[in-house]
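> forwarded from #structure-qc
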């Protein structure tokens, strides 16, 4: 009658809120695959093992999406994760993560065309073409293949 040994990690509420608030603010979190780091980063002064454990739990619940590359975990907050963190941290619905904020508008095609129609390169760009030389060509008066 052996029961499976289940180990649970105790993470203080202060550390949990620090990780959750950073994840909600940024929308993403990057964690190095190193459980021995004493502190995750300057932004999150929590042991890296606790951050990895919390994110593993979030991924299994579907609150984050994980990508692992070159010994780093990249966690992306999903819509269900945003709703959960909004409820857990008691945030209003008008606050959104940085990845969901609308960025500054890009220049339109009309603005790009007006810059191209000027026909002048910016700065000190002034190429000089002599018409001789180039890759694989010889000079006219060097005597080779004359």
């Amino acid at each position: 009658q052996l029961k499976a040994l289940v180990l649970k990690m105790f993470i203080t509420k202060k550390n949990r809120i620090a990780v959750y608030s950073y994840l909600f603010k940024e929308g993403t979190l990057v964690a190095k695959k190193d459980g021995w780091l004493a502190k995750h980063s300057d932004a999150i002064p929590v042991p890296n093992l606790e951050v990895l454990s919390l994110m593993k739990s979030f991924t299994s619940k579907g609150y984050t999406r994980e990508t692992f590359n070159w010994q780093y975990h990249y966690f992306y907050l999903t819509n269900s994760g945003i709703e959960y963190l909004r409820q857990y941290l008691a945030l209003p619905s008008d606050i959104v993560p940085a990845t969901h904020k609308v960025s500054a508008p890009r220049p339109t095609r009309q603005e790009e065309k007006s810059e191209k129609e000027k026909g002048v390169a910016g700065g000190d760009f002034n190429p000089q073409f002599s018409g001789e030389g180039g890759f694989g060509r010889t000079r006219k008066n060097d005597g080779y293949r004359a």
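QC bot note: Strands lie at 28-32, 64-69, 72-77. The longest helix spans residues 13-26.
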